[in-house]
Amino acid sequence: MKKRRKWLLLGLGVTLLLLFGLSQFYGYIMKDQWNERSAAKAAAKSRAGLIEITKAQKSVWDENSIYWVLTGKNRDDTDMMVWVRFTANGKIADDDTAVYAEMVSNGTSEDKIRAIIKSEMPGITIKRLLPGVYNGEYAWQLFYKKNDRYHYRFYRFADGSSIGDEFSLPNR
């Protein structure tokens, strides 16, 4: 009986030690991401006047298009979207165009762009839809599946129109 209890306590101790180690490893891996998100939120509040942030999404298309896009409300209770541009080493870009804010009513909301996509391409499965930047334009980045292939397509935030051609990913 004592041997069984000893092994049970030892197993429990090892399990707890492994769980603690995994949580520390996860925190170490995610620290940079969390720091970027916190910096983006602070920039959106100080430079764009957001007082409430409801969503923060990271969009990366290439090394010059690394953005955190925050959705929220300003002091006038107006729905806003704020794009905060980052450098490749995780710092907010240090020029005047690093933070761009726009009222959602002046552009295309997520619900509206989903309706546009559904009417243009009724047979697709949307895997991810997030705001970002494509070729210097504020846009919605659509990742979708159509006929067992995956594709990317971009839509302008300003009016919901398609930008360029779709990108088809190769089959595996």
From TrEMBL:
Coiled coil: none annotated. It comes from the Bacteria. Residues 39-84 form the Cell wall elongation regulator TseB-like domain. InterPro entries: Cystatin_sf, TseB-like_dom. This is Cell wall elongation regulator TseB-like domain-containing protein. It comes from Paenibacillus wynnii.
